[in-house]
Amino acid sequence: IFCNAHARRKFKESINNYEEESHFYLWCYQKIYHLEKKKDYKKRRDWQRVYFRVMERMALKIKNSYSSKSTLSKALNYFINNYKELTYFLNFSKSSKVYVDSDVRPC
Questions:
Q1: Model's pTM, two decimal places?
Q2: Helix, strand, coil % (nearest 5) of the chain?
Q3: Fewer Cβ atoms within 10 Å of its own Cβ: the N or the C terminal residue of the chain?
């Protein structure tokens, strides 16, 4: 199962050695989770998509700058390799009641 809580935790684990980079992803996840509380469903999902795209672009840009064994590299690779699954919840309608960490798997 791929979930954003796991992705977020991986960035949290890398904060001691890669504070600036990890903080960026943790800040984005904070915004994404905070948006789950908003009532305007369309606006919420639109903004969550923006944060995920920014995170993906940054991850692709910086991923080769770090040792493949580093905690940050592991977090970035988890995020990049599972991007489709991590963002799958964005494809559901409001009536589906699927949230950022719902156990939903693409077919």
A1: 0.86
A2: 70, 0, 30
A3: C
